[in-house]
Amino acid sequence: MQSNHILPGDSFMKEQPRTENRARFAVQYTDEDFTEAVEEALEKATVSASDVAEIVGCNPRYAKDRLLKLAEEGKLEAEMKGKGWGFRLARD
């Protein structure tokens, strides 16, 4: 019976670069890698209708309806995030 388990050293596994004593090289990340990742994440960041409702002081359902209307008008961007909507300012 043939095993379906993946074993280290299987030919399809990519070999990692190693030092002279066969230790794996640690991946090096720059400060710029992290600052650029934060910038990219902020561009994708959204707020929920519940967050907006809490700040405005209205019902979350009403906030969602208004936010979706603003998205239809191009004033906001909306996207599904899991089971709910996420909203952000429209990009120019």
Helix content: 25-40%
Number of strands: 3
Compute the separation of the termini in Å: 61 Å
The SSE order reads HEHHEE
Q: Describe the strand arrangement of the main beta sheet, using strand numbers.
A: 1-3-2
Report the biggest beta sheet as strand number plus sense, adding barrel if it closes: 3 strands, antiparallel
In DSSP terms (H or I, runs of 4 or more residues), the helix count works out at: 3
Strand content: 15-25%
Low-confidence stretches: none
Radius of gyration, in Å, reads 23 Å
Morphology call: elongated
- Mean pLDDT, as a whole number? 84
Assembly type of the chains comes to single chain
SS-derived structural category:
alpha+beta
Protein name: Transcriptional regulator
Salient structural properties:
92 residues; alpha+beta; 3 helices; 38% helix; 15% strand; Transcriptional regulator
Topology:
Layout: H1 31-44, E1 47-48, H2 49-56, H3 60-72, E2 76-81, E3 84-89
Helix pairs in contact: 2-3
Describe the structure in your own words.
By secondary structure, the chain is of the alpha+beta class. The chain is built from three helices and three strands; from the N terminus they run αβααββ. Helix content is 38%, strand content 15%. α2 (49-56) crosses α3 (60-72). A three-stranded antiparallel sheet has the order 1-3-2. β2 (76-81) and β3 form a beta hairpin. The radius of gyration is 23 Å and the shape is elongated. The chain has a domain at 46-89. The N and C termini lie far apart (61 Å). This is Transcriptional regulator.
Question: What is the structure about, briefly put?
Answer:
By secondary structure, the protein is α+β, with helices and mostly antiparallel strands. It has a domain at 46-89. It is built from 3 helices and 3 strands; from the N terminus they run H-E-H-H-E-E.
